[in-house]
Amino acid sequence: MYQYNYADQTLVDERVAQFRDQTKRFLAGELPEEQFLPLRLQNGLYIQRYAPMLRIAIPYGLFASYQLRKLAEITRKYDKGYGHFTTRTNIQLNWPKLEDVPDILAELASVQMHAIQTSGNCIRNTTTDPYAGIHQEEIADPRPYCEIIRQWSTFHPEFAFLPRKFKIAVVGTANDRAATQVHDIGLHVKTNEAGELGFEVLVGGGLGRTPVIGKVINEFLPRQHLLSYLDAILRVYNLHGRRDNKYKARIKILVESMGGPAFAKLVNAEWEAHTKDGPLTLTEENFATASSFFTEPDYLSFDALQVQDDLQKQLDADKAFANWYNQNTVAHKVAGYRAVVISLKAGVVDGRYVPSGDVSESQMDALADLADTYSFGELRGTYQQNLVFADVQANQLYELWQQLTTLHLARANINTLTDMIVCPGWDYCSLANATTHNIAEQIEKQFDDLDYLYDLGEIRLNMSGCMNACAHHHTGDIGILGVDKKGEHWYQISLGGNSSNDAKIGKILGKAVPATDVAVTLQKILDVYLEQRVSNEQDVERFGDLVDRVGIAPFKEKVYG
Ligand code: HEM
Ligand code: SF4
C-alpha cells in the first residue's frame, strides 16, 4: 500500500487547517455561499436533501484495517453509524454536520485519508481492478500506474477547474473489471511486440444524460509517456471543452462532436509540441518507486493437493459454504490462496432492507479484525459496491465464511441479479427523480431464492434515481432508471447494457412502469430469458447474449403485449 511521506502528510494536514478556517468563516457569515461552494466541493462535501454528504477518497479502492477502524469510529462519533461504498470505490457519509466536517477531516488525516478531489470539476479518484496484483491473467499490476496518476493529478493547478468532473480507470488484465469504457479516460495495460509495457488509451466514455462508450485514441502508448500524454489530453479538454452548458461539458461531448480521430490529432499535436519528452516523462526509477508500494505480502507455501483435498471435504459437507465459495471467491495467482468478495448486498436483514454498499460501524470494526486475521490487514472496494479480501488462505476460507455469515456479509449472491448497483436516490439525493431503495427491496423480496438466481446466471442489474446515472443503469444487463411523472416515481427499464470488454448501452424497453410493478415486470423479462436462452453441455447463453441475439422485441411483447 502507498505510504504517505512527510510532504503528503503536510499537504493533507494543511488542507484540513484551511478548510477549518473556511468553514468557520462561512458559519460566521463572513464567507458568502457562492465562495464557500467550490471550497467545500474540493473537499468532497455536498449539500443533499436532508444533510451534507461527505465523500471520502479511497485511492484505487485499496485501504487498510486501521483506516477502516477509523471510518467506523467517525461514523459512530459524527454520523449515524454507517457508511456507503460507491462504484468509484469511495465511501460516503450521509449525515455529517457541517460544523463537524473539519474535525472529521482531521481524524481522516491521522490515518492518511482525505476527501480532496472527490467532487468538483477536477480529476477524481482513479479506480482499478479489485484483483490488481493477484489475478492469474494480469499483464502487469495497474496500481503503481494509478499511484503515479494520483500524485500527478492531486492539486494539479492547471486541472483544478476543468469544464466538468474527470474520471480515470486503469486495468491490467484483458478482462475489464473497472468499467474503463465508460470513463473519461480508460487505460488498458498492454505489451507491444518487443515486450515493452504501455497502454491502450480510451477517451470520452461516460454515462449520465448522454451515454457514450469511450473511443481508442492510442493503441499503444509506451508507459514512460503516460503522464505527458494524459497532460496533453487534459489540456485539449480544458481548452476546447464546453463551459457554457453544464450538460454538454464532459469530455465525451467534445470527443463526440469532433470525432475520435480529430480529437486524437489535437492531443498528438499538443503532446508533440509541449509535453512529450518533457519533465513529465517517467523513468525506470519512477516505476520502481511506485511499484515498491505494492509488493507482495508474505505468502506461505502449501501442499496444494492437501489444501485442495481439505477444502473439497468442506465443500462437500456444506452446501451453503459451497455456494459462497463458487459465487464469492476468485482464483489467485499464488497456489493455496483465493480472493474473497464480501457482499454488501445483504438484502433484507431482520425485516429491514440494507441498501447496496452500506456497511455499519460494527461491521466495519469486525471487517477490520477479519482483514488482519485473514488477509494481511488490507481491503479493497469494487465497482459493484462490494469489498474484497484479496489474499485469503484457502484453508481458512471456511472459518472466514462462518464469521462473515454471522455479520450478514456472506450472502452468496455475487454477480447474480441481487448483486445490484443502486444509487442513493430520493432518500438522500436532492437531484433524484425517484426512490431506489424501496424498489431494490421489492426486487430482493421477489427474487430471494438463491437457486433461482444461480439458474439465471450472471446478470448485472443497475438502478439510478435520475439520469445522472450514478449507478450506471445504462450498462446493466438490466437497467432501471427512476423518472418523475407528474410528481410520481416511475421506472424506465433498459436491457442489454454492458460495462466490461463488450461495453454497450442498453436499449430502452418501452414506457416506464409504476413503482408497484417493477419486480413483476422484471419477472416477465426473466421468464423470456429462461424460455429463450440456448444451452448446450458446456454453456448456457447469458442474458446479455440473448438480448444481442433476439433484440428487445420478445421482452417488449411479454411486458406490454
Ligand atoms: C447523493 C449524492 C450524489 C450526488 C449529488 C451525485 C451527483 C452526480 C451527478 C450530478 C453526476 C453527473 C455528472 C455529469 O454527467 O456531468 C454524477 C455522476 C456519477 N456518480 Fe454521482 N452523485 C451522488 C452519489 C453517487 C453515488 C452514491 C455513487 C456510486 C454508487 C455515484 C457514482 C457516480 C458515477 C459513477 C457517476 C458517473 C456517471 C457517468 O459516467 O456519467 N454517485 N453524480
Ligand atoms: S443517479 Fe441521480 S438520484 Fe442517483 S445519486 Fe446520482 S444524482 Fe442522485
Please give a structural write-up.
By secondary structure, this protein is an alpha+beta fold. It folds into three domains: 6-109, Sulfite Reductase Hemoprotein, domain 2 (Alpha-Beta Complex); 135-292, Sulfite Reductase Hemoprotein, domain 1 (2-Layer Sandwich), CATH 3.30.413; 421-560, Sulfite Reductase Hemoprotein, domain 1 (2-Layer Sandwich), CATH 3.30.413.10. The protein is 37% helix and 18% strand. Strands 18, 19, 20, 21, 22 and 23 form a six-stranded mixed β-sheet that branches. It has a five-stranded antiparallel β-sheet with strand order 1-2-5-4-15. It has a five-stranded antiparallel β-sheet with strand order 3-16-17-12-11. α3 runs antiparallel to α12 (361-374), α5 packs across α9 (284-291) and α7 (251-258) crosses α8. The longest helix is centred in the N-terminal third of the chain and has 22 residues, at 6-27. The radius of gyration is 23 Å and the shape is globular. The protein starts with 5 loop residues before the first helix and ends with a helix. 50% of the residues are buried. The model has no long low-confidence stretch (mean pLDDT 97). Iron/sulfur cluster binds at residues 423-425, 429, 431-432, 464-466, 468-470.
